[in-house]
UniProtKB/TrEMBL annotation:
<keyword id="KW-0963">Cytoplasm</keyword>
<keyword id="KW-0067">ATP-binding</keyword>
<feature type="binding site">
    <location>
        <position position="237"/>
    </location>
    <ligand>
        <name>Zn(2+)</name>
    </ligand>
</feature>
<keyword id="KW-0547">Nucleotide-binding</keyword>
<dbReference type="Pfam" id="PF01406">
    <property type="entry name" value="tRNA-synt_1e"/>
</dbReference>
<dbReference type="InterPro" id="IPR032678">
    <property type="entry name" value="tRNA-synt_1_cat_dom"/>
</dbReference>
<dbReference type="Pfam" id="PF09190">
    <property type="entry name" value="DALR_2"/>
</dbReference>
<dbReference type="GO" id="GO:0004817">
    <property type="term" value="F:cysteine-tRNA ligase activity"/>
</dbReference>
<keyword id="KW-0436">Ligase</keyword>
<dbReference type="InterPro" id="IPR015273">
    <property type="entry name" value="Cys-tRNA-synt_Ia_DALR"/>
</dbReference>
<dbReference type="Pfam" id="PF23493">
    <property type="entry name" value="CysS_C"/>
</dbReference>
<feature type="coiled-coil region">
    <location>
        <begin position="413"/>
        <end position="440"/>
    </location>
</feature>
<dbReference type="InterPro" id="IPR015803">
    <property type="entry name" value="Cys-tRNA-ligase"/>
</dbReference>
<feature type="binding site">
    <location>
        <position position="28"/>
    </location>
    <ligand>
        <name>Zn(2+)</name>
    </ligand>
</feature>
<keyword id="KW-0862">Zinc</keyword>
<keyword id="KW-0175">Coiled coil</keyword>
<dbReference type="GO" id="GO:0008270">
    <property type="term" value="F:zinc ion binding"/>
</dbReference>
Length: 465
């Protein structure tokens, strides 16, 4: 079956083709100055599924996701807290991994950091200056957007349209309002590196171009991120990368939609930004992942408590079906797999592939997952069901529900009542030792088993959902 992907560059669904069975994939990672919010998480969860599905199809995927560990936000946080930029970046990089590990996001093959590639950035900027595509003014270096044919092609606007419709930074030293910074002169006391243009630090856009080239080459198969990155970040990446390499930068551009909070846009000004760190205290990790995959990735998705409660019920229903199969497997006898069941599973596999091959429609893939639950429940209602039949059903859930979507655990252990107090004690000990990652893992384990924890002045209380 052919995979089709919506390419932001062409604004059309295109047949997905690569050189052989390899895929190079770059997803813009977080700026590690604070905890990530649920909008960030949508990027990482969805493209985790894209990567998983391509691997399921037999592609060898090289997945790169960067960390921006130096920029204005980190410098501001450094000034406010008295911590170094490096300390803040390390703290929130660890926090990112704690959040994403909990949500089942597989770590990238490579997680490059901007500060580890300063030399390559300086070399790239020097090359752009030599080519006449960039210029230096008082220690700042800017890219000449008018010297690069096709600027605006990703956001599908001409330079004239962009200039009339966008808010452009006023800067008298730039040759053109849309010229963007490749290198920024350091202010007093700021983190900086020595360059031919004086001390300074990289601009945001050059980081991704250089790191993508370093690990994936001049032309990538997939470059992805939130729709807010389309302009100016990705637009500027295309311009500087194609000016640098004289080759097309990316074959397929993919962008996911926004998350709204109670039908309002999530923004700091409205005070409705929801951090994943906080969400994990209220909802199970599987429910958060389910919510993020429950609408087509290019569409906006609306967060409400009601929606999250429904997500909890949905993942519980999925996991209960798998747990029932595993429980029945313990007492079932060997026997043949009925042809009817084999045909049903094959049809479900076809339906799942049709969903995912149509622009990675994970939401429709989830619908097929529930069809599989209905099928499993029908067979479980029969008085006799062979061990091999149950194995076939569990295999299906393992491939599509666990390995691709990451929504069920086919080897999950049920927490017995006698273990709950022991786990709570371990969690309390981990918190005292400031091992918050382990404490969160225990809380998520109990939540997944239907055990809610409540921290009170009198100690930790638990109850069943």
């Amino acid at each position: 079956m052919t995979v089709k992907v919506y390419n932001t560059l062409s604004r059309e669904k295109e047949i997905f083709e690569t050189n052989g069975q390899t895929v190079s994939m770059y997803v813009c990672g977080p700026t590690v100055y604070n905890y990530i919010h649920i909008g960030n998480a949508r990027v990482f969860v969805f493209f985790d599924v894209v990567r998983r599905y391509l691997a399921n199809l037999g592609y060898k995927v090289t997945y790169v996701q960067n960390f921006t560990d130096v920029d204005d936000k980190l410098i501001k946080a450094s000034i406010e807290t008295g911590k170094s930029v490096a300390q803040i970046a390390e703290e929130y990089t660890d926090a990112y991994f704690a959040d994403m590990d909990a949500l089942g996001v597989h770590r990238a093959d490579i997680h490059p950091k901007a500060t580890e590639h300063i030399g390559q950035m300086i070399d790239a900027i020097a090359t752009l200056i030599k080519k006449g595509k960039a210029y230096e003014v008082n220690g700042d270096v800017y890219f000449r957007t008018l010297r690069q044919d096709g600027y605006g092609k990703l956001s599908h606007q001409s330079v004239e349209d962009l200039q009339s419709g966008a808010r452009v930074e006023v800067n008298e030293i730039k040759e053109h309002p849309f010229d963007f910074a490749l290198w920024k002169r350091a202010k007093e006391g700021e983190i900086s590196w020595n360059t031919p243009w004086g001390k300074g630090r990289p601009g945001w856009h050059i980081e991704c171009s250089v790191m993508a080239k370093e690990y994936l080459g001049d032309t990538l198969d997939i470059h992805a991120g939130g729709v807010d990155l389309c302009f100016p970040h990705h637009e500027n990446e295309i311009a500087q990368s194609e000016a640098l390499n004289d080759k097309p930068f990316v074959r397929y551009w993919m962008h996911n939609g926004f998350i709204n909070m109670d039908n309002e846009k999530m923004s700091k000004s409205l005070g409705n930004v929801m951090r994943v760190f906080d969400m994990r205290k209220m909802y199970s990790a599987k429910a958060i992942r389910y919510f993020l995959l429950s609408a087509h990735y290019r569409n906006p998705i609306n967060f409400t408590n009601e929606v999250m409660n429904q997500a909890e019920q949905s993942v519980e229903r999925l996991q209960t079906s798998v747990d029932n199969l595993r429980h029945r497997q313990q007492t079932s006898l060997s026997g043949e797999v009925p042809n009817e069941l084999t045909a049903q599973l094959e049809q479900l596999s076809v339906q799942f592939a049709e969903a995912m091959n149509d622009d990675f429609n994970a939401a429709n893939g989830i619908t097929v997952l529930f069809e599989a639950v209905r099928t499993a429940n029908e067979w479980l209602s029969k008085p006799v069901l062979s061990k091999e039949s149950i194995h076939s059903l569990l295999d299906w859930f393992t491939i599509y529900g666990e390995q691709v979507l990451g929504l069920v655990d086919t080897n999950a252990e049920t927490v017995l009542e006698g273990q709950i107090e022991k786990l709570i004690e371990e969690r309390q000990s981990a918190r005292k030792q400031r091992n918050f990652q382990r404490a969160d893992e225990i809380r998520d384990q109990l939540l997944h088993a239907g055990i809610l924890l409540e921290d009170t002045p009198q100690g930790v209380r638990w109850k069943k959902k």
